[in-house]
Design goal:
39% of the residues lie in helices and 26% in strands. The chain has 147 residues and is an alpha+beta fold.
């Protein structure tokens, strides 16, 4: 195995308050739009309370720790999500900004650890879920994949 493909970096994605705020804001905007178009009656008030409960539940689920990432300098990645191991490499379509990083993970079809999983998937990592050093490492990996 080449030294560039060995998984040398390990990143644990911690709890993110930003993720909870974004999810709660999305649901809150949907509730406000419904309030604008549909008036408040006894029936719709119950619907709004249910939607508000879903917003709180979604925000809580978004705040939970996501995964453990193991990365190589060449862009190969192992992701452990809820006890399931996924193997692949960081795609060129991944991007980052000041708030979050979106990693598009393409499966490595030659790797026997992938288990024949042909589906690409993505991971959103908010800035407060990792340290500054790890955030910059992920951003460098995305830029490296674009070259």
């Amino acid at each position: 195995m080449l030294s560039a493909t060995t998984l040398t970096h390990s990143i644990y994605v911690k709890r993110s308050i930003y993720a909870g705020i974004v999810v709660f804001a999305f649901y809150s905007i949907a509730i406000l739009l419904l309030l604008l178009f549909i008036g408040i009656t006894w029936l719709t008030a119950a619907l709004y309370f249910v939607l508000f409960g879903i917003a709180l539940y979604g925000a809580r689920k978004a705040c939970l720790p996501i995964s453990l990432l193991k990365l190589s300098d060449a862009g190969y990645i192992e992701v452990e999500v809820k006890g399931e191991l996924k193997v692949g490499f960081v795609s060129r379509s991944s991007f980052y900004n000041g708030l979050f990083i979106s990693l598009n993970i393409e499966p490595n079809k030659d790797d026997f650890l992938s288990g024949g999983d042909d589906k690409a998937f993505f991971i959103v990592i908010y800035r407060d879920a990792v340290s500054e050093h790890e955030y910059r490492l992920l951003a460098r990996m995305i830029n490296f994949g674009r070259e």
